[in-house]
Write a structure and sequence with these properties.
The chain has about 120 residues and is mostly helical. About 45% of the residues lie in helices and about 10% in strands. It contains four helices and two strands. Strand 1, helix 3 and strand 2 form a beta-alpha-beta unit. The longest helix has 19 residues.
Length: about 120
């Protein structure tokens, strides 16, 4: 898709008020601790915490997060879930349930939209 087409799509998606669209762009040069960059999964988990923090902190109900299963290695699937839950319950004051589910984009319109 060309940029103007993406803008139209995102404007339509954002006009609904039952969910939010968020994204993060990280300039690796601005990450102070370069040790995080040595492991892609560690870096992914770290950056995901910034992306999810606002959504989780502002929610007054259970949170269900859908992620593309191709974005992390199998061995790190539980580590992201555990990491986000630890942050949410100990640092962000969240008291509800959090579920993180990995889905194949072929089977999820939501993940296909994210891929765009």
């Amino acid at each position: 898709m060309k940029f103007p087409q993406k803008q139209v799509l995102f404007n339509r998606i954002c006009s609904a008020n039952d969910y939010t669209v968020s994204y993060i762009v990280a300039d690796k040069q601005n990450i102070d601790n370069k040790k995080i960059l040595e492991d892609k999964n560690l870096c992914y988990n770290y950056l995901m915490s910034f992306l999810l923090k606002k959504t989780i902190k502002s929610s007054q109900e259970d949170v269900n997060i859908l992620l593309d299963n191709h974005s992390t290695k199998v061995k790190s699937i539980n580590s992201l879930c555990d990491y986000i839950k630890i942050k949410a319950f100990t640092q962000w004051g969240f008291t509800k349930n959090i579920s993180i589910n990995y889905v194949d984009s072929k089977n999820s319109k939501v993940i296909q939209a994210v891929d765009v």
